[in-house]
Amino acid sequence: MEKTFAMISLGCAKNLVNSEQMLYLLSEAGYTMVPEPDGADFAVVNTCGFIDAAKSEAIDVILEMAELKKEGKLGALIVTGCLSERYQDSILEELPEIDAVLGVGSFGDIVKAADAVMEGRAIRCFASSSAPVDEIPRVVSTGPAWAYLRIAEGCDNYCAFCAIPYIRGHYRSRAMENIVEEARELAAHGVKELIVIAQDITRYGTDLYGKRCLAALCRELGQIEGVEWIRLHYLYPEAFDDELIDEIASNDKIVKYLDIPIQHINDGILKAMHRRGTGGEIRALFAKLRARIPGLVLRTSLITGLPGEGEAEFEELCDFLKQARIERAGVFPFSPEEGTPAAAMEHPDPLTAQRRAELVMELQARIMDEFCESRIGQTLRVLCQDFDEDSGLLVGRSYADSPDIDGLVFFEGSCAPGEMCDVLVDSAEDGFLYGKEVEA
What we know:
Elements: E1 3-9, H1 13-28, E2 31-33, E3 42-47, H2 52-70, E4 76-81, H3 82-86, H4 91-94, E5 100-102, H5 110-118, E6 123-125, E7 146-150, E8 152-153, H6 164-168, E9 172-173, H7 176-188, E10 193-197, H8 214-222, E11 229-233, H9 242-250, E12 254-259, H10 267-272, H11 279-292, E13 297-304, H12 311-324, E14 328-333, H13 350-374, E15 379-388, E16 393-397, E17 409-412, E18 420-429, E19 432-438
Parallel strand pairs: 1-2, 1-3, 3-4, 4-5, 5-6, 7-10, 10-11, 11-12, 12-13, 13-14, 17-19
Antiparallel strand pairs: 8-9, 15-16, 15-18, 16-17, 18-19
């Protein structure tokens, strides 16, 4: 008799990799994934627990699955990931509808949990969140032709506003040979774009090899046949060195798009938030990167309403953004996370933080529109992703667009999804580019 499950993956790309690993383990154990939880033997909800909005989303999904159980449309419910790790002492009491709960160190126990709930048994698994990274194969669910490549787990930065080190554990690099082997396998299966991810990729290798090894890893990845783009997420500003900058500038496969979360630019706020470096050093780094990497597109993350942010500090942030012309930005109002130092600090009220976030997003929208307009008349290399039924056009991404967070390129042509082609941009609207495929 077929044993079926549904997988719901919430949160970040790193969480998605864990979901893909669980998909592999369950499939190897004889379980069949179905697209919807309605009618499945069990559902796995891999949660995010980073900020209040993510926690609320996870709880809403869990309650939705609980209602399906109550109606007899779902057999059992397994909850994994950051929310279960963060609230391991109370989650089953608060949400008794859950049949099995796994922490972030126990994704490899998913088959044990599945077998248990199929037999009507409850189970709770919480291994160390700082154990070495499990080298578990995965079923890639992204694409076509792109995949995430996780190179490390955890974080040792301990920014005052962030709960991730307490949830995901200490920083642990994967062995370089394991990463390169996985990248070769992905390329052999048609993956053309590798998106290199970790909570902080700039510190890759420091725990394992005693030095920063991201540049060396990029050199290895750049030699893999079939890989055309290597995209880097997330690089911390204080950990850049000349070797890494030179590698990014000279390696043709590394897309000239760097995601560097700065959170703020004011010295006092940066210091209070335990961020290494100063606003002046961030400004100097961005200027240096633009000078040495032609065509560079920068992306960053910003938080408004952090402790210490008054009107003057907020104006400093806005003035910096007007000067730096950062092409891509994610903007979030401060979320005081329980257990973090920042939660106990005095900070602007939530409405003020939200209003400031909206003002920054308006400012950034104008910068992004101007950037898109500057692309008109240019021929861009595009990774075709799909055919858009509504517009009747093919849709893809340029080097300036990371999946799910940036813009898209709509174009006329014959390029197949998963293939790359050249597109002449002839217009821009609402953050999207439009054009026609041209011969290389």
